[in-house]
Design brief:
Pfam families: CcmB (PF03379). It is found in: Membrane. InterPro entries: Cyt_c_biogenesis_CcmB. Its main location: membrane. The chain is mainly alpha-helical and 222 residues long. The chain contains eight helices and no strands. The chain is globular and about 60 Å long. Helix 1 packs across helix 5, helix 3 packs parallel to helix 6 and helix 7 runs antiparallel to helix 8. The chain starts with a helix and ends with a helix.
């Protein structure tokens, strides 16, 4: 299983390197969105208040995650998926996709946070809690959207639209927790105030990962 996951990961990294335009477009999206936000608030004579700062950051990261994960399964044809089916186990495929998307979204989230603080200021009072919550958000987006991407790819048709329709309602509970914890980090509240929300986020990530591991083989054989 580990050998299959490592092989699939190496394949995804090679494909991403060959298609650098897609990665560049994703980074350009994040950078240009942050810059537009900067221009909008600079015209009003200042930086956004912490609640708006927090909400805008998560909106940018959410749509960046959807764009990044959407191409995971959809760039592969039905023939390629059948070929993978004869070589590796479906559990290895979904775990490799989740791990790759988690690494990609972690890089995008950290880069987005860096650009965001450069252009729009840094109101974070508890950096450790905020960055930890950001990493949990990247992992949660990766696990949830990877499974949704697999479902949309098997459904055929306009997979990107189907992924957005299926993914957004699923992401709402996670987004509410992420926004709550990051708001606590902006306010400098003690870790104990956010402990239950952070543990809930960890539990959600574990549940989605376990559900994907158990159910993806049935989806893959469909």
């Amino acid at each position: 299983m580990l050998r299959e996951i490592s092989t699939l990961l190496a394949k995804d990294f090679r494909l991403e390197w060959r298609q650098r335009a897609a990665l560049g477009g994703l980074l350009l999206y994040v950078g240009s969105t942050v810059f537009v936000c900067f221009l909008s608030f600079s015209l009003r004579g200042g930086t956004p208040p912490p609640p708006a700062w927090n909400a805008l950051l998560w909106v940018i990261l959410l749509f960046a995650a959807i764009n990044a994960v959407a191409k995971g399964f959809m760039q592969e044809s039905a023939g390629q998926r059948l070929y993978y089916y004869t070589l590796v186990r479906p559990q290895a495929i979904i775990l490799a996709k989740m791990l790759y998307n988690a690494l990609l979204l972690t890089v995008v989230a950290l880069l987005g946070l860096f650009l965001y603080t450069v252009f729009l200021g840094n109101p974070i009072q508890s950096p450790g809690l905020f960055v930890g919550n950001l990493l949990l958000g990247a992992l949660g987006f990766a696990t949830t959207l990877t499974l949704v991407s697999g479902i949309a790819a098997k459904a055929g048709g306009n997979g990107a639209t189907l992924m957005a329709v299926l993914g957004f309602p699923i992401m709402v509970p996670m987004l509410l927790l992420l926004v709550k914890v990051s708001k606590n980090a902006l306010d400098g509240l003690d870790w104990s105030v956010s402990q239950s929300s952070v543990l809930t986020l960890v539990a959600l990530n574990m549940i989605v990962g376990a559900t994907s591991y158990l159910l993806f083989p049935f989806l893959w054989r469909g």
